[in-house]
Design brief:
There is one protein chain. The chain is an alpha/beta fold and about 575 residues long. It has three domains: about 35-125 and about 465-515, Fumarate Reductase Iron-sulfur Protein, Chain B, domain 2, CATH 1.10.1060; about 140-235 and about 395-450, FAD/NAD(P)-binding domain (3-Layer(bba) Sandwich), CATH 3.50.50.60; about 240-390, FAD/NAD(P)-binding domain, CATH 3.50.50.60. Helix content is about 30%, strand content about 20%. Mean pLDDT is about 90; it is low at about 1-25 and about 290-300.
Amino acid sequence: MSLIKKKKKKKPFKAHAHGAGGGQVSTARPVQEFKLAPCIHACPSGNDVRGWLTVIAQREKLKIGLEEALDRAWQLYMETNPLPAIMGRVCPHPCEGSCNREHKDGSVAINSVERSIGDWGIERGLKPSLIDAGGPFDEKIAVVGAGPSGLSCAYQLARRGYKVTLFESFPRPGGMLRYGIPEYRLPRDIIDAEAARIEALGVEFRYDTSVGKDISLEQLRDEYAAVFVGIGAHVGKKLGVPGEDGPGVYTGTDFLRRVNMGDRPPVGSKVVVIGGGDTAIDASRVAKRLVADSAAVSRRMGAEVTILYRRTRVEMPAIEREIEEALEEGIRLEFLAAPAKIIRDENGNVTRMVIQRMELGEPDASGRRRPVPIEGKVDEIDVETVITAVSQAPAGKALGLEGNWIDADDWGRTAIDGIWSGGDNVNLGIATTAIGQGRRAAESIHATLRGLEHPVPAEEEVITHERLLMDWYPPAEPAIRNIAGPEERLADPLAEFDRGITQQQMIDEVARCFSCGSCFGCDNCWMYCTPSCFKKLSEPRPGYYYSVDLSTCDGCKKCAEQCPCGFLVMR
């Protein structure tokens, strides 16, 4: 019997899902997997919000300076939206409502950073990149309407090498951006600068040209390979109450358009605005600014303005910050009240209004509780001017179409061959929605003219805050915009009173982004990996900071468990 012991063969190491002491063997391995950030998912224009936030936030890891980072962020933004400085001022930023940071210490102030990037592009005279789509092409495209959807469509087609002519009935570009939004919210030089950038791509603007009057839609169909219709919805709806027709009563869109074109409609000393949306708020604040004399300015009192809304503040669709600013300026809000009759004197002047008091019933199709009249409960108030801002509609019939509204699918295609459409004439929405519709229509026009398949959007997983290690991120309060007080605002009625945020605030703000679902080079995976699977890349890019060598992985899961942004998963 030999005294020499035989060496036992070593068994290969097997990782266990429940630790080294035993349990189920883990065969899972880490996978670098991009997830759709909720800010991107919530953006109607499809903007890569995470992309332009993180290229600034990660600039040192990317080995670039601040100026280059801002230039890159601007270019990323411009891929889907040509109006960053405009949107940074007027967009109600649904992206912020979906931001995962809201569940920690407040959403990232995306809209404030958006404005900073937009202004940076104007100051630097930056030019957007072109798309190598095989152009330039011989086909000519007509775009009707220089509002957000038309500007977006023209921009994307010009980037692809098409000859675009933009027909606009007004003397300047912008559509509702210029003729519906007050100048103190959106300075006209900002609109001009961003429209000029689109014009510099070769887009021809034909102003004071009304399609349906100066040139027919049929003529455009004959002369152009494709036509995009983005006429917006500039026709304000009436109330349908006795006494409405006559002087002293304006629709919100007509009132704002007149003021924005340089007119000063007489409003008297008592104004009532009907409605609870952004147009109602804008109209009330503009009316407040139409003061009769400097003494009124010094008293911070112009016209006495009251907003009547048939629901409560909870249901008001207007931007919350705009409501607060209106209240600061002395505008009254009266809820659960609807106009029943407008009373005029023997000369036809508005003198009083009968108000029907309301209560809330069951939810209607909008999801909001339906206002129901309280029988027998009416009041009368003194009023000299009434502005109705209850809704608005397009003027599709003026183009020779059967109805006012235009039916279009998700790609902007209509039932009429050769015509695409987008914006408020398809459905009332916000400017960023119209911009997204214009872009998709441009992509559809290009695909149709080139005989290409329409791209099918990939279904991506939206990463929620439950998937993040939110405690890993240090607490930091969101940036607060510098907004002038009500006295200063009313003393200089046309001046922009929202000054945005400083560059340092912007730098601090982008650092608050979680980079949800995209690697930002935190090094956690590298530090926690005992077998050294993760190798730092010598030339990192946003989302790409490490390579993974799975041949050495033991399946311990630590890397995925310690990934703050949810980029690493075990498969």
